[in-house]
Design a protein that fits this description.
The protein has about 425 residues and is mostly helical. The protein contains 16 helices and no strands. The N terminus is likely disordered.
């Protein structure tokens, strides 16, 4: 019996273990960077990564899931052709986006020159994403975990080398990340580099990819506003120093996001099984939401207690202003916990339009909340705005589920009559 359970959950346990180890390494890298670079440079790095978060889905047309779908549906030859078609299309989009960034930079030379590397990093993120999806579909959990972990470790090592030998700034971290990603690609595609070579494509093939990804692409801007706009707004209405302080607090607070993601992954099979078994979706959703919130709140309390004891050691003196911000980021992360189960349920029920509406409403609330929060409370106000955005998103999805439940009950009643 134990052997069966171990076999069943081996892949999950492997992915989870490597995910935690990689997240912990990334967390350690953030803490080390806070000691090696100034807050203003940390702010530049946060803006760069935020822009990459926005551009990467544009380069990929948000159609990454087609890789997982076609990996199982197509034979090897057809899949290789589809994959190269998708890569070729991404190269073309990358060229257009890179040109647009160059034009913007030429019109305003006061822009940070590092922003010209955003499309490059986004393209690498896309190519790496394809490789990661293939590892998952091929059930190569160990290889996937090892490459992810050592890529993170290599990026950190390269960053430290560049900081010590070149300059202690955001550029050293960005170049470290890009070079580590290039090494990842060489390892993943050794002997199969032809998959990265563009080929003449048919318009019909490109149209299928674009049509699949377009609805998802529509949610990129509001999702970016909900998750990343706070750092940009802080840098615009405060300064890079404040953006660095806020980004440092977010780097610590993201450990809460990692915990919530791992917790959601662990309950997802049970949640979906319950939804398939029970007809009362609101009751199931309410039950899992309550459990999720209680566990998340308990972890937050333990985390805050540990942070209160170690804050002076975790954050160096130059980031002392970030110490109180962390408390609010952790507490307001519970709004994301409120959304986590609701988002999973709406995905299961195929309520993609409703989810887009919810994300858009949450983005509007977040942008307004971030702006007003900064005006009245300073940097910490940005965290209030993000919390408000996720609360609105959760409420919208809950009302959508209530409407879905009423519709289902009405259909049953009509059948009974």
């Amino acid at each position: 019996m134990i052997g069966v359970l171990l076999s069943r959950y081996k892949a999950f346990a492997t992915f989870f273990s490597f995910s935690v180890a990689t997240s912990a390494l990334g967390f350690g890298a953030s803490l080390l960077l806070m000691r090696l670079i100034m807050p203003a440079e940390f702010g530049k790095l946060a803006i760069f990564l935020s822009m990459q978060f926005l551009v990467a889905p544009i380069v990929s047309l948000s159609a990454d899931n087609l890789i997982a779908i076609n990996k199982t549906r197509l034979d090897e030859t057809s899949y290789a052709h589809f994959r190269r078609t998708y890569v070729t299309l991404a190269y073309a989009i990358f060229g257009v986006v890179e040109l647009a960034f160059c034009v913007v930079y030429a019109l305003d030379l006061q822009q940070e020159v590092l922003l010209l590397l955003v499309p490059v990093a986004a393209l690498l993120k896309f190519l790496i994403g394809l490789a990661s999806i293939e590892y998952v579909m091929e059930e190569k959990s160990v290889q996937y975990g090892l490459v992810q972990f050592f890529t993170t470790a290599l990026s950190l090592a390269l960053t430290v080398v560049f900081i010590w030998t070149v300059s202690a700034d955001a550029g050293s971290r960005i170049f470290g990340l890009i070079l580590a990603d290039l090494v990842f690609l060489l390892i993943r595609y050794r002997g199969r580099m032809r998959l990265l070579v563009p080929l003449p494509v048919k318009l019909a093939d490109c149209s299928k990819i674009a049509l699949f990804g377009f609805p998802l692409l529509m949610s990129v801007a509001p999702a970016w506003a909900l998750n990343e706009a706070d750092k940009i707004i802080v840098s615009r209405y405060a300064d890079l120093q404040a953006a660095g302080i806020y980004a440092a607090a977010c780097a610590i607070g993201n450990f809460m996001v990692t915990f919530n993601t791992s917790l959601l992954n662990s309950i997802l099979p049970k949640l979906y099984a319950a939804l398939a078994r029970e007809t009362d979706i609101l009751s199931v959703t309410r039950h899992f939401m309550l459990r999720f919130l209680l566990i998340s709140a308990a972890f937050a309390a333990v985390f805050l207690a540990a942070y209160a004891l170690l804050a002076s050691r975790i954050l160096p003196v130059k980031y002392v202003d970030a110490r109180p911000v962390v408390y609010w980021i952790i507490v307001l992360a519970l709004a994301r916990s409120l959304y986590a189960v609701l988002g999973a349920v709406t995905d299961y029920l195929g309520l993609t339009v409703q989810k887009l509406v919810g994300i858009s409403a949450g983005a509007v609330a977040a942008l307004a909340g971030i702006y007003l929060g900064i005006q009245h409370f300073g940097v910490v106000g940005a965290a209030f705005g993000v919390g408000a955005g996720y609360t609105v998103l959760a409420l919208v999805l809950w009302f959508c589920l209530m409407a879905k439940a009423r519709s289902a009950r009405a259909a049953v009643e009509r059948c009974e009559k």
